[in-house]
From TrEMBL:
A matching Pfam family: Fe-ADH
Species: Robinsoniella peoriensis
Protein name, entry field: Aldehyde-alcohol dehydrogenase
Gene: adhE_6
Keywords: Oxidoreductase
CDD domains: PDD
Domain annotation Alcohol dehydrogenase iron-type/glycerol dehydrogenase GldA: ranges: 8-159
GO MF term set: alcohol dehydrogenase (NAD+) activity; metal ion binding
Alphabetized PANTHER family for the sequence: ALCOHOL DEHYDROGENASE (PTHR11496), HYDROXYACID-OXOACID TRANSHYDROGENASE, MITOCHONDRIAL (PTHR11496:SF83)
PROSITE patterns registered for this protein in UniProt: ADH_IRON_1
Fe-containing alcohol dehydrogenase-like C-terminal domain location: 171-380
Amino acid sequence: MNSFDIKTKIYFGDNALDRLTDIPYQKIMIITDPFVVQSGMIELVTRRLDKSGKEYSIYKDVVPDPPIEKVVLGVKALLEYQPEAIVAVGGGSAIDSAKGMREFATKLGAKEEMALIAIPTTSGTGSEVTSFSVISDPVEQIKYPLVSESLLPTEAILDAELTRSVPPAITADTGMDVFTHALEAYVSTENQEFAAALSEKAIEICGSFLLRAYLDGSDTHARKKMHIASCLAGLAFNSASLGINHSMAHQLGARFHIPHGRANAMLLPFIIQYNSYISKHSRSQKEYPKQVKKYVTIARILGLQNFNTITTIRALVAWVQFMLREMDIPLCIAQTGKCTKEEYFAAIPAMADAALADACTPTNPRVPTKDDIMDIYERLWDVN
Ligand SMILES: NC(=O)c1ccc[n+]([C@@H]2O[C@H](COP(=O)([O-])OP(=O)(O)OC[C@H]3O[C@@H](n4cnc5c(N)ncnc54)[C@H](O)[C@@H]3O)[C@@H](O)[C@H]2O)c1
Ligand SMILES: [Fe+2]
């Protein structure tokens, strides 16, 4: 038996932030990152809270790839302030931090059940509608997704006005995160028609609007579309989960601080080829595994359908590589300048173990071995 539900109420479109004047909570803690406060963007939120006479406090110490000790500091702040609701404003890091803080504060005896209102300022993670929160452990050098229904935000507010200031590199990385969510959910072993429909629309939007948003950040139409796509892809993977692209990307983020979407984007060409059993040397076969048909459908949605199955999968891989080049995303780890070859290769066995144990791995359409994962990491070092 399957089920599908969307527990988070979604407000979207022009002036969606006006929802803040109507929320039925009086005492609020805003959880955000320093950029949102320093840039003045926070005023788009506080102005509305002031207008409706809310009491609020601002916690602004979120850092990218939230480490567990920062989450602990936020839990203390929540237990001291005891708000009725949390308003999380920022990228995936701010929203994931708020989810983790609320979860632990509730377990540690917060007086009231706190509502969580998630307001994304990047079009990327879809965290505003997912039961995932990705936390880093800097000591163990791993990043692990917590997965629980209790992490789901109560409300999500999608106002693309907040994404206009996202610089091109972050638009590129987060946009490829959207694409990876939609694609991994689509080929996941848990995929079904509801999640598939959400993925297909998200992919269609990425195909038409991601490059536009990257090339011109003030292209409001493209920004709005990508903001919706991010949420659609979040709903898709919240229902169907992800795969080893994410499992492997989490390790690259934890060890070498490669931004999440960028790590996903670099891995994608390798993972599509691995999951489809089709490389540039493959010859056509009578039958292909189920996921190959799904990749072909994605290629068709992107307008890439080609001569036959093999040429179509190659076209899909080439499209991803084209997007990476157009948006100045490195194609391999060597191009990131984040580590030496020795450091990288020394980390591969431990990264492979952690990727195999990652919560996203069980739904990958091809069951990987440690050797498979190590082989992909090794080839990711240098594409030349
Ligand atoms: N919970 C989930 O379902 C889920 C899914 C995928 C990824 N993640 C996690 O989310 C995190 C990544 O989130 P992200 O990609 O949104 O990036 P982020 O939240 O880490 O932000 C990246 C940078 O962008 C800046 N930024 C945010 N909004 C901006 C704006 N409007 N204008 C200018 N700069 C802005 C931030 O200050 C930060 O410096 C990772 O930890 C990843 O593992 C979570
Ligand atoms: Fe992601």
